[in-house]
Design brief:
The chain is α+β, with helices and mostly antiparallel strands. Helices cover 21% and strands 25% of the residues.
């Protein structure tokens, strides 16, 4: 907390057992070992060591002072000088039962601190009031101090129905009330696999079990509980096989599993800035539920309404960062969240008509329309921060010299290698509009510049204007290609219809001449020999459509304004595009008109239309 450049980590075992604490500085990639008691005690039993540190001993940065860090052995230790010195602020908080601190047993002894009994296993300081510190042990005790460690109170006896010898696996001190805390106690090592989860609101004087809704099974014992930092009463609970959520302070729980495997959820963290729920599972997996703000915002009136559009969190238009090369089959690689803005909405029931999500810019123009699910409940749609793309090319003829490549069932094929232009939304305030059965629900959405980008918002505005110009040219060229393709396809059909008799020779000859003229223009716009089956881009030169798409990709690759060269190339391409547009206009006005006149003279009904 507070200083994102400093990382504290802890470990024990593997021969030491002295409470290894490491401070790592991400700015210079340097670390320092500030072990609490750097005595090599590998092979010693728990009863023989000065301080008992479990492999998973807790380390806690104070929410009130990021220079104050706590750690737990059988005592609570604290440092205020980055580990240069540690002091003890508690008595032995465990049962200190020496009968459970002997040799590990087994064919081969394994006394390295991992399995030590009688250790502080969980620590928490109240975010509300400094000095209110909770400690839980792995031999079943819960203790609290309200004066920074000067006086401790054992409140274990106040917890109803709690068997002995459990591991207090997590303590969550409430950020909303200093006297409130939540605990989980794991008793599976003494073969009790029920969930033990409790809440206190009076500093541990009384406790209430909060396990309603958690099914009892061999895998229902609890590991970790967390309170949402925004919504009071919203809790998350990790058990041996699931994650649960409560909207009423633990009175009732329900699964929050979604696509999470039924793995042991050992730890939970909530990233407060982006409202992400982060889980650590026993399989060394990390899982993130991105943006839980709908769960934080959901109210009873929302659930009773026909539809509700939640306020979206700010969306950053992040730019790609250069990463070190990694193997494509790296088993430790995770998945990034979907890029863009999370748009969440609630439907009480399936609407009569499909719902629609629209994105409007500051001027009220619709820049993107998204497909929305009609499923009742909370739904999420990701807007990738892109405007509507340029029109698609639909080729209605086979590639030149490759007649074996056929059209699809709809009578067309895509243009291989051609890219659409879809502008990345510049920073600004947009409006999200959800339409359900004629009713509109709107929310503002802030799109923010990547804070790591050196380009200015002024640069991005110039870039957007540049790309908008290219998009217009691209759409004009795509319209031309689609029109030419329609004409060429009709000419082929006409030649087949009139047959090969001598009387039809003038029509076939005129059709070939018109087709050749159309091809001459179209070849300037796209490469007609491209098949998509190999290295077409190194065999044949690109057309104007491809060049415009390439230029757009080059300009939008960063947040900088277009270069002088970008502008010069655009001007040349647009001039060439205008020339070909003029050629097509003249061809349609004269050559196509002459050809249609010939068809009328021959009483052929297949008059060619110039509509794509």
């Amino acid at each position: 907390p507070v200083d994102p450049n400093i990382i504290w980590s802890s470990s024990s075992g593997n021969g030491s057992g002295g409470g290894i604490v490491t401070i790592y500085d991400v700015r210079n990639h340097q670390s320092r070992n500030v072990e609490i008691w750097p005595e090599d005690v590998g092979g010693a039993t728990a009863a023989q060591v000065k301080y008992r540190f479990n492999w998973e001993f807790p380390i806690l940065i104070s929410p009130h002072d990021h220079n104050k860090v706590y750690a737990g052995s059988q005592f609570v230790h604290v440092t205020t000088d980055q580990g240069q010195s540690w002091k003890i602020i508690s008595p032995d908080l465990t049962r200190n039962d020496k009968s459970r601190m002997g040799f590990s047993g087994g064919l081969t002894g394994d006394n390295i601190g991992v399995e030590y009994a009688g250790v502080v296993f969980a620590l928490a300081e109240s975010p509300k009031t400094a000095g209110v510190l909770w400690a839980g042990t792995n031999d079943g005790l819960v203790q609290v101090t309200r004066d920074g460690g000067q006086h401790w109170t054992n409140v274990t006896a106040n917890i109803p129905g709690l068997p002995e010898w459990g591991t207090v696996s997590s303590i969550e001190a409430s950020r909303f009330d200093a006297g409130t805390a939540y605990i989980t106690v794991d008793l599976h090592q003494v073969n009790n696999r029920d969930p033990f989860v409790y809440k206190t609101a009076d500093y541990g004087q009384t406790w209430t079990p909060i396990v309603n809704g958690i099914p009892h099974s061999m895998l229902s014992y609890a590991h970790c509980i967390r309170e949402d930092p925004v919504r009071q009463g919203l809790l998350f609970l990790g058990t041996e096989n699931a994650i649960y959520v409560s909207f009423n302070d633990g009175a009732n729980w329900q699964p929050l599993q979604s696509n999470l495997p039924h793995a042991p959820v050992y730890w939970i963290a909530i990233q407060p800035h982006f409202h992400d729920l982060v889980l650590a599972t026993y399989g060394r997996g990390f899982w993130i539920m991105d943006d839980i703000s709908p769960l934080e915002q959901m109210t009873a009136p929302d659930l009773s309404s026909a539809a509700h559009l939640f306020p979206p969190r700010d969306a950053y238009r992040f730019r790609n960062a250069t990463q070190p090369d990694t193997m494509p089959n790296d088993p430790t690689a995770g998945q990034n969240p979907p890029y863009g803005a999370s748009l969440d909405y609630f439907l009480k029931s399936s609407p009569k008509a499909p719902p629609r999500l629209s994105i409007l810019d500051a001027a009220g123009h619709t820049v993107r329309t998204l497909v929305a699910s009609p499923r009742p409940g909370i739904n999420r749609v990701i807007w990738d921060l892109r405007f509507e793309g340029t029109k698609p090319i639909r080729l209605r003829t086979s590639p030149l010299y490759a007649p074996e490549i056929l059209l699809n069932a709809q009578g067309w094929r895509p243009a291989p290698g051609e890219r659409a232009i879809s502008i990345l939304a510049p920073p600004g305030v947009y409006t999200v509009k959800l339409t359900v059965d004629g009713q509109d629900y709107t929310r503002p959405l802030h799109v923010l510049k990547d804070p790591h980008s050196n380009g200015s918002e002024g640069d991005i505005q110039l870039q957007t204007k540049f790309l908008t110009s290219l998009s217009g040219t691209m759409n004009t060229m795509v319209d031309a290609v689609n029109r030419i393709e329609s004409l060429r396809a009709q000419l082929l059909e006409l030649k087949s219809a009139v047959g090969t008799e001598e009387a039809s020779t003038p029509i076939r000859s005129a059709a070939d001449q018109l087709s050749d003229k159309l091809v001459a223009i179209e070849e300037q716009l796209i490469q007609l020999r491209t098949t998509g089956r190999g290295q077409d881009d190194v065999r044949f030169p690109p057309g104007l459509v491809h060049k415009i798409g390439y230029l757009a990709g080059d300009v939008e690759s960063s947040d900088y304004q277009p270069t002088t060269q970008d502008v010069a190339v655009r001007d040349e391409l647009q001039e060439q595009a205008a020339t070909q547009q003029q050629h097509l206009k003249l061809l349609l006005e004269k050559d196509l008109a002459d050809f249609n006149a010939l068809l009328r003279q021959r009483n052929v009904p297949n008059v060619i239309s110039n509509n794509p």
